[in-house]
Design brief:
Number of strands: 0
Order of helices and strands: HHHHHH
Radius of gyration: 23 Å
Shape: elongated
Mean pLDDT: 73
Length: about 210
Amino acid sequence: MAYDNDTGSSTPQARRDDVVRAEKERFGGIKWGSAFFGWLTAIGMTVLLSALATAIGVGVGAANSSGAEQAADQAQQNAETLGIASGIVLAIVLFLAYYCGGYVAGRMARFDGVKQGLAVWLWGIIIAIIVAVLAAVAGSQFNILNNLNGAPQIPVDGSLMTVSGIIGLVIALIVPLIGAIVGGKAGMRFHRKVDQAGVDHQSGLVG
């Protein structure tokens, strides 16, 4: 059994590119459904990784403490260092969480991994705006993102409008965007390997 090669390409790589180009023209673009499930993955990973980071931090603090008074003095002396460390941990958590979210979206959509990652990030912004409006209208008890460390929030009451709050908000916006885009590209790359395997198999049958 043989397959006809109608593309005119002479190498498996070139034939794969031809196939992917034709598929992308028809099925490419942002897939908002895939991106939504990617965002759900990112939020779930944010909760899990934040809980893990908190548990590790509590464990380390308990192991290093030698009396309440000494611990309080040390915390006061190292407040700036602790703030920087918390920011680094937050950035790592958000990057990993949104990398996973972008990967899910890119894997589901197959094409345009960067756009899928961007869409995952946009879902986070859209949900944050909806929650902020709901909290402003119906009360702060509806600000469900307040319990998720690192989830983008809109400071409707001005509580985040401090230097540390602004820095945290920047981290919560920029780092997830980078992680989601990188993850989206990684998820899409899996399908290129699958496409290449199919073309290689077809080439073997043709030969």
